[in-house]
Design goal:
The complex is a heterodimer of chains A (355) and B (410). With 355 residues, chain A is α/β, with parallel strands linked by helices. Helix content of chain A is 33%, strand content 18%. In chain A, the strands form three sheets. Chain A has a seven-stranded mixed β-sheet with strand order 3-2-4-5-7-6-12, with helices on both faces. In chain A, strands 9-11-10-13-14 form a five-stranded mixed β-sheet, sandwiched between helices. In chain A, strands 1-8 form a two-stranded antiparallel ribbon. Classes of the chains: A alpha/beta (355), B alpha/beta (410).
């Protein structure tokens, strides 16, 4: 039974909930604002996030509202940002820090993988690490090789981390609140191409703003979306498309463009993974395309395909196809030849349907 | 082409290698009592020379002299001596236990006992240390039960860390001892974060960061210093310079800088260098730094000049890279013997009482070991469950780990 969320579809007050039109930037900001208001232990910091409000303006106004000891600028030192966040979490705070671009997280990778991810385990719960690392991810903004990366598989390979990738303002807010309230470290990857609208890969066309999209309608108050639950964005019975982040909208566009009866699943959380939802769908359709923007080899798609052959092998009617970024660095000028757009996803759908 | 000089790479070498005569003439040692004690609110630029000298209290005769002396009562000094002796006896027994196959690995403190034992006494209950693997004196001096340490070393059924950690990688929030990573330098910047958190919450507690001479080369060390400096974090930045990073002499990490303490100067952090084998000097300098932190004056960098008499770990053989007699030539002596001499000179201790204390401490250690071994050692007796592999990765076990645990049969 496909699950479609229409609860908050109407504008204005719905069942006593105040709704507002928000971009993904505003939704993320609202999540931090509400969390900081509700819990004095929540602190926000990173490069340019204080006075200026972040290069994408996600933290705009938070320093003015909560003071500069709760929202502040840091030196350009990712190992310092994450290392101090871990120390603060050990003290009892809940840091929600920004890595300016996901591409900049590598200097902090030691702190993330061998420290944040393991402190609960290695101390048998004596110390814990409830931190959130927000990081703009993915391409589509002519950012070249150092402002376009999707490093999610480098996190999903690390036990002890949770990995979340929202695809719209509604989820971004609810998932970020859940991440901040989570007792363990959460990598929160924000597809930057979605910040202002549901970009579907048709780069030659104008993007619909979130204000005209139902998922741009967001409760103003506190709500949390459980980490580890996927969402079916489009019900279908011919083929399952598994995607997350920007690729959800690309997959929806490909389904529309080709007219294939595709069921599009938005994973939302890669770790923990909602295995039940994808197994149920692929068992029903017997066909599957997995889409991500990150490079193909050893990407998260490989894990999904492995799990599906393990759990759905006897339901499969065609080989599962992956559509991903090429195994090259993200180029600058040739961005749209690199980006796995709706045409490539559409060809994969046709291939799977014909097999 | 103009005449260009051909370049050549400089690779530093220690003064002496195995077979040579130990030579510490490069270690310039100030006379005990000679280095002034500034006020704690001094500007870092006014005490730059303290990063290049060595603060010492105990002189050759065993007297406590100069402006850094006089902080500890006889009782506190006797406790300090006893803690150092206990740590040394504990190490000796655990080294033996490792050779007997009761654990896989051990790291001892021989020659460095004063550093962690004295610094613990300069801190308050509630302060947090972010230690490396050679500061067990922080636990001993805080009366953490030795039997718990041994349970961890033996990875037995009472191991507080459920068999997950290498021996000696203790964790005790209650005793202000952050879980040891086994990675190097990561904890240094975490300590700064903990201290920043304490300041954010207008708390009164402070943090102590720990690192060895070799690991100061890691980028986390520099991240820690810049964050500590920028936010004036209430943290003591300790560097234990024991001359050797496994087989690598300290000059490889130090580079062209005269001392490790001097690293603090570029960050505007007051930096002091202290005789790490002088219990009184270590305590006095750590106390000075703690007072600075508590008065919200910010971080202090301290280099403890000491010598690693033993091997790096039970997996190391120092005779392969340094003269066997080098430790005998170490000019700052033995921390236990120096404090003992001081206390005898003061008339509050004697050779007889020392021998008697050694025997009492050994009994205490053996008794703790017996009680630990009742609950197993690495390859014999009680051990943590296979189930413990899967627990505690997350607060709540996610389905994929639950499936793997079931597959493992638990």
């Amino acid at each position: 039974m496909p699950r479609c969320r229409r609860t908050f579809a109407a504008s204005g007050r719905k069942r006593g909930i105040d709704m507002a039109r928000m971009t993904m930037i505003e939704a993320v900001r609202s999540a931090m604002d509400i969390s900081m208001a509700r819990d004095e232990d929540v602190v926000v910091f990173g490069e340019d996030v204080g006075y200026f409000g972040g290069v994408f303006r996600c933290t705009q106004g938070l320093q003015a509202k909560y003071g500069k000891t709760r929202c502040f600028d840091t030196p350009i030192s990712e190992s310092g940002i994450v290392g101090t966040a871990i120390g603060m979490a050990a003290y009892g705070l809940k840091p929600c820090v920004e890595i300016q671009f996901a591409d900049y997280m590598y200097p902090a990778y030691d702190q993330i993988t061998q420290e944040a991810a393991r402190i609960r385990y290695r101390s048998n719960g004596d110390f814990t690490c409830p931190i959130v690392l927000r990081m703009p991810t993915g391409g589509g903004i002519f950012g070249g090789q150092t402002h376009s990366q999707s490093p999610e598989a480098l996190f999903t390979h690390v036990c002890g981390l949770k990995v979340v990738v929202p695809s719209n303002p509604y989820d971004a807010k609810g998932l970020l609140i859940a991440a901040i309230e989570d007792p363990d470290p959460v990598m929160f990857l924000e597809p930057k191409r979605l910040y202002n609208g549901p970009f579907d890969g048709h780069h030659e066309r104008p993007v619909t703003p979130w204000s005209k999209h139902e998922l741009g309608e967001v409760p103003e108050d506190h709500y949390a979306i459980p980490i580890g639950k996927a969402e079916i964005r489009r019900a279908g019975s011919g083929v399952t498309v598994i995607a997350y982040g920007t690729m959800v909208h690309v997959a929806l566009a490909a389904a529309e463009d080709t007219g294939v009866d595709a069921e599009v699943i938005d994973l939302r959380s890669l770790l923990p993974l909602d295995l039940d939802t994808i197994v149920q769908s692929v068992s029903k359709t017997g066909r599957c395309v997995v889409v991500h923007e990150a490079t193909l080899t050893s990407g998260f798609g490989a894990e999904i395909v492995a799990l599906l052959q393990e759990h759905c092998f006897y339901h499969l009617e065609a080989p599962i196809v992956r559509v991903a970024g090429w195994d090259t660095p993200y180029p600058h000028a040739q961005e749209w030849d690199y980006f796995p757009g709706p045409a490539r996803v559409g060809r994969a759908l046709a291939e799977v349907m014909e097999a | 082409m103009p005449d260009s000089q051909r370049l050549s790479l400089y690779v530093p070498e220690p003064a002496v290698r195995p077979g040579g005569l130990p030579d510490f003439s490069n270690v310039k040692i100030a006379k005990a009592g000679a280095v002034p004690r500034p006020e704690v609110d001094v500007a870092s630029e006014d005490i730059r020379d303290l990063a290049y000298s060595i603060i010492r209290v105990l002189n050759q005769e065993g007297e406590a002299v100069g402006p850094w002396a006089g902080l500890l009562s006889d009782e506190a000094l006797l406790t300090g001596l006893r803690n150092m002796m206990k740590l040394r006896a504990f190490d000796a027994r655990m080294l033996m236990a490792q050779r007997q196959g009761k654990t896989s690995f051990y790291m001892q403190h021989l020659g460095e006992e004063a550093v962690s034992c004295a610094v613990r006494k300069a801190l308050n209950k509630g302060d947090m240390n972010f230690p490396t693997y050679r500061q067990a004196g922080l636990l001993i001096a805080d009366d953490y039960p030795m039997v718990e340490m041994m349970n961890q070393i033996f990875s037995n059924e009472n191991d507080p860390l459920r068999g997950r950690q290498l021996p000696i990688m203790y964790s005790s929030k209650e005793h202000g001892f952050f879980t040891i990573s086994g990675n190097l330098a990561t904890q240094y910047v975490q300590a700064v974060g903990w201290a920043m958190a304490s300041a954010i919450k207008n708390d009164t507690r402070i943090a102590a960061a720990w690192i060895g001479d070799g690991s100061t080369a890691e980028s986390d060390f520099h991240s820690a210093l810049v964050f500590a400096s920028t936010y004036r974090a209430p943290v003591i930045l300790n560097i234990v310079n024991n001359q050797w990073a496994i087989s690598t002499f300290q000059g490889i990490a130090r580079g062209g800088s005269g001392t490790f303490a001097a690293r603090g100067l570029g960050f505007g952090i007051p930096a002091l260098r202290v005789d790490g084998n002088d219990y009184l000097a270590v305590y006095a300098v750590a106390r000075w730094a703690a007072e600075r932190a508590r008065r919200n004056l910010g971080p202090t960098l301290i280099e403890y000049v000491t010598y690693r008499v033993g091997a790096h770990s039970t997996s190391d053989d120092p005779s392969a890279y340094r003269p066997k007699t080098e430790s005998d030539a170490w000019p700052l002596g033995d921390p236990v013997l120096r404090l003992k001499k001081h206390l005898i000179l003061k008339g509050v201790w004697s050779e007889e009482r020392h021998v008697q204390a050694e025997a009492e401490i050994l009994d205490e250690v053996i008794d703790a070991q017996k009680r630990a071994e009742e609950h197993g050692t690495l390859h014999a007796g009680g051990k943590p469950s296979v189930r413990d592999i899967f627990e505690g990765v997350y607060a709540e076990m996610p389905p994929h780990i639950r499936r793997q645990r079931q597959k493992a049969g638990y």
